[in-house]
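As a warm-up, study this chain.
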Amino acid sequence: MKKITSCTIEHSKITVDGNIIFETESNTFPEFAKEAYKSLELSYPKFHKMDSLSKLAFLASEMLLKEEDDHSRTALVFANRSSSLDTDFKYQESINSQENYFPSPAVFVYTLPNICVGEISIKHKMQTENAFFVLDEFDEKFLNDYSEQILQSGKADKVLCGWVELFQENYKAFVYLLTL
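Now compare it with the structure written out below.
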């Protein structure tokens, strides 16, 4: 297996293969994500409705997938530590509020971590395997072994995999594209 390319997002900076693609002084992830989306001239209106974890995964994925048109045979294998906890807290707050009790279906849909892989799959019309694991720490060997099984089975030609961790204002994405 070989790594084709990689993207890292952290500390208000996006790098692809070690080269800075975008950087800002934003203090919060939502500000950073909005600025990156505009600056990189991405065009996907659903982006603005996504939760922060999905935006993080989407931005990292776009840096690696935007060059090609056909991703129908690209699989997705992601992991993180906090699952969807950031969004879970926001949803719980909407339930706890006695004055404004209105559990939002728009927020509820993001209370599963694998929704971020779903958003990427929809955008790129991916029709192959996808998985989202919750692990104590980034385990590249585990992700690579799992991806290798997908590639060797012939179910996909490439696998986009990596770590997309976001909880409150702590975030990091390390996403990379693999092939045989």
